[in-house]
Amino acid sequence: MPKVSNIKAVTRKILECTKSVNVSFNNVNLATNELMKKKVCLVTGASRGIGKAVAKELLNCGATVVGIARDESKLKACSKEFSTDRFHFFACDLSDVENISQYIDEIRSMISYQFIDVLINCAGVKNGNDERFFDYTHEDFDDVLGVNIKAPFFWSQAIAKQMIENGIRGHIVNVASIKGFIGEASPYGISKWGCVCLTKGLGRLLGNKGIVVNGVAPGGTATDMAPYKEGDSLAHLTTPSLRLSLPEEIAKIIVFLASDLGNSIVGEVIIADGGQVTQYGPSRNLI
Predict the structure, then answer these.
(1) Percent of the chain having pLDDT more than 90?
(2) Domain limits for position 174
């Protein structure tokens, strides 16, 4: 059994090493509409699907939201639908990473030069599953990887730098996919595998700088990526829950991770797929 004096010495050494880390364990107990109050949140892919649902949920929780997407007309439609002066939008090609600094400057000018507290990397594109393996071109590959992993990497890099330089205790949430766990021979699957890797790496790298990084891995979700109609006869093949997830369900998990409620979760990717991954492997039951 180690001597008490040795334990005390080790404890003192640990405390010395952590003096520079400012960690808060304050409990969060707020009304839902105040959960993200005074937070500025940047949401990529905010014009549709999960990204749009996330933007709406953040607004409901009191945040100021900047939605980013390529299609300005869809962003304008979202702005009209949300009908609040706390929603701003910015149209750009997220994969154009060489101009991120300029884009961020323009975004900050729209919100009175406030800094970004939360980054949600939600934008994603898909051009098929692994049944297309022999048909994919390098252009197909680059198109998907540019939006799905290159953009989250460099937008996280740029926003994290500003958070650190300005002492912002921020959050980054990456939207991956169950394909990042089960694998798939497609650009989409590879990009989501990379997104899981990026999330875990950033969680470890940025945690002691006051930035909490996590991710969510949806399965089949009722968006235009997985069109679904009520009563679809193939629903029983999708999940044990016999349905696709709703974008609003995924959005609530993302907002939880983007808030101080999720501060003790670091570098994790929460699978939210209705049990879909349980149907992969030797025990898969399609009956």
Answers:
(1) 71
(2) 33-271
Does residue 19 sit within a domain? Answer: no
Specify which residues 25 forms β-bridges with.
Answer: none
What is the β-pairing status of strands 171-175 and 212-218? parallel
CATH at residue 149: 3.40.50.720
Helix, strand or coil for residue 89? strand
CB 90 within 8 A of CB 110: yes
What pLDDT is stored for residue 220 in this prediction? 84
Whether 239 is covered by a domain: the verdict is: yes
Residue 283 in any domain: the answer is no
Of the candidates 103, 113, 136, 188, the residue annotated as catalytic is 188
Q: How far apart are CA 244 and CA 252, in angstroms?
A: 16
Say if residues 119 and 91 touch (Cβ distance below 8 Å).
no
Close Cβ partners of 277 (under 8 Å, ≥ 6 residues apart): 178, 181, 182, 219, 271
Q: What is the pTM of this model?
A: 0.85
Number of domain units in the chain = 1
pLDDT tens, 228-240? 555 554 555 567 7
Q: Quickly state the pLDDT bin for 162 (edges 50, 70, 90).
A: very high
In a domain, 277, yes or no: no
Instruction: Verify whether residue 113 is a known catalytic residue.
Output: no
Cβ neighbours, 10 Å, residue 66 = 23
